[in-house]
Here is the input.
Amino acid sequence: MIRGLILLFSMFIFMLQAQSFELVLPKEKNCIVNTNYAFFVGRAKNGESISINGENVYTASNGAFAHSVPLKDGENRIMLRSPYGIQMFKFYKNDKQKNVEFPLEEFEPIMGYVKRDNTPMRSEPVDAGLNRISHLFECTPLIINGSKGNFYRVFLSSNKTAWILKEHVQIDLDYIQTPTDFITMDSERYKNAFVQTISFTKKLPYTIEDTEEEIIFKVYNPEMDENSVYTLNIPKPEKYTYNVKMDGGKYTVKVRKLPEKKEDYTIIIDAGHGGSEKGAVGCLGDEEKNINLKLAQELYNILKKQGLNVHMTRECDANVSLNDRVDFAKDNGADVFVSIHFNSIPDICMDIHKNRGTSVYYYNDNSKEFAEILEKNVTKIAGTRSDGVRTASFAVIRPSDYVGVLVETAYMTNPLDSLLYRSDKFMHKAANAISKGILEYIKKD
Here is the structure.
């Protein structure tokens, strides 16, 4: 009798667990975190209602739900309740280290060398954001006269300094100063490009600025004189790309006009993540890498039917590094680069009605108009909420060699958006919207 009751009770508990919600996040019931919020993402079953710490949680018609809970320092206990039972979670929040303001240390000038190509020189000692003012070449000599935290201060002229990560510089205390001599300057105008060169006896630091009417390229020769600055003012067309190349001490700055005919464009479609890089995980367990690829393939097929020259950075579930994606675009002569992604909720108090929809990111000014056109088309045609056009320092859209944007089509971790992105109809609409945006941009006079 007792054994039968135990068996019956066990079956009852099993049935409750089988019917109750499934969680995608968090992955563990006991977590040590340094975030401000605990984020719960999952799927409810059989229309069950869910509350978290007594607050009712919105559940979409497909069962998707997502909810954030603010965390205090130390231990936090969070209770999830549904008609089928209760689950308890414990989060221990580490005190976040306060932002430390490192003191500026000034010292007598010393010499250093850049360790590798494409090393960012920044306008402030912060390793993030839109503060890159150039990408220096390997073995470029620098005059260092200060430090702050993980950065060295670079002396460029009497009224210009910059910052570079210490790990990117090799200090040379035995360096013997030999002022760099200017050799020559030249310019050539082609049908679709303006190329300007400036040569010195060795490499020098430089900055580049994209203004409203021109590209301003400055080379600094502080070993010669603290005010020795060479400036190139290069005009630019309405739709353009530009790059800087180095050969010895010869700099070549090329500003290129984009093609006039759509058939002459090369378009790169980048399906974000892939392989071991899953990206975000949706409320129902979908992995972003797969959703990205599905949309990218749909977009690729539409563009090919339009007669465009289009390539994909990955055509299957494969690992492709960020550098390889950029190199692929450059090697194929990319004019336009579109990186396909789906968003997730950051470490914030989530609002399912606000943190949803389509956002488009760009880094360089030559990509802003394209980003605005894409965001307008996707929200209008695919029916997503407008989540804005923003700047961001994503590796695949930083190069100025092409017009590059990153599209966050919808939110993987928003229950309302999950109703959209799981639909084949939505995928077709979103791909069609992006393709229309691309065509609108490349056809625009």
Notes: The mean pLDDT is 93.
